[in-house]
Amino acid sequence: MWPVGLGWTCLSIARRSWSSVSSPPSPLPLRSRMLLFLVQHFHDIEAIVSWSSWLGNWTRQRKNVYYSYAQKQFGSNVAAAFYILNLKGGFRLAGQSDWVRPNAKGKFSLDFINFSDLSIEEVDASGTVINYMGLNNLVSQQKLRCLSLRGCPEVDDWFLSRLHIFKDSLEELDLSGCSRVSVGGLSALHHLRKLRKLDLSSLPRVQNPGLVRILLEEVLPHCHIMGVEYQEGLQSSGAETDIKATSGL
Asked: Entry's InterPro entries (predicted)?
C-alpha cells in the first residue's frame, strides 16, 4: 500500500511531465522565421537569379545573331528584313508606302521576300534588344534614311560609334530613352553629315544636355536636335571638355 503523500507526489509529477510533452512549442518571431526561410532558400534564389541572367544574355545574343543563311538564300535585303522582324521591329522598303511589322504574337507575312531587290529605307527598332553585334545585319542597307531606336536598352556608346556606316544616307535618328547612351557615344555622331533630325529626349547618362546640343549643332549645322533645351545643364563646362576630347573637335 503506497503512502498517501507519495501517491499525490507521483501524480503531480506525472501531470507536469504530460503537460510539458503535450504543449506545442511557442512560434518563432516573424523576423526569425523570415531569416530562417532566406537561409534555407538562399541558394535556390541565387540559382534562379543566375539562370535568369544567363537566359537574358542568351536571348539577346540569339536575336542579334548574323542571318547568314537568309543572306545566302535570299540576299542581304531580305536578311536585314528578317532580322528586324524577329526583333519585333518594323521597316519600310524604298519606293513602298506600307510598313512591314509582326503582329501581336510576333508572326509576320513573308511577302517582302518578293521584293528582295528593294533596300530598306526606314527602320523602327523601338523597344527592341538591338545591339552592336546585330548591326552586322544592317551594314548592307546603304540607303537607310530613318532609324528609330527609342527606348532600346542595349543601345550604348559602342553602338553609336558604329553608325558611321550610314554616314552617306541617314537623315533621321531617334535615341530618346536610350538609358546607356552617354556623351562619349553622342560625340561619334559627327560622322553623320546628312543627319537632319535627331531626338535626344530622356537620356539619363547625358549630363549638361544643353551644352551637348550646342556642340552637336556645331558639327551638324543642318540637323534639328529635339528633346533638349539650351538651358539644361549649362552651369558646368565638363560636358564640353568630354565631347571635344572624344570627338577631336
From this structure: LRR_dom_sf
Query: What fold, for 45-226?
Result: 3.80.10
Query: Per the confidence metrics, is the pTM higher than 0.85?
Result: no
φ/ψ of 115, rounded to 5, equals -115, 40
Cα separation, 134 vs 153, in Å, equals 14
| C-alpha cell read off for 99 | 510598313
Torsion angle of the four alpha carbons 30, 32, 34, 39, in this order, in degrees rounded to the nearest 10: -170
Q: How far apart are CA 205 and CA 128, in angstroms?
A: 20
Instruction: Please report which confidence band the pLDDT of residue 239 belongs to, taking 50, 70 and 90 as the band edges.
Output: very low
Q: What's residue 241's pLDDT?
A: 53
pLDDT at 11 over 50: no
Whose cell is 531569416? That residue is 35
Q: How far is 36 from 30, CA to CA, in rounded Å?
A: 10
- Three-class secondary structure of residue 146 per DSSP: strand
* pLDDT value for 6: 47
Residue 117 one-letter amino acid: D
pLDDT at 8 over 90: no
Report whether 207 contacts 179 (CB < 8 A).
no
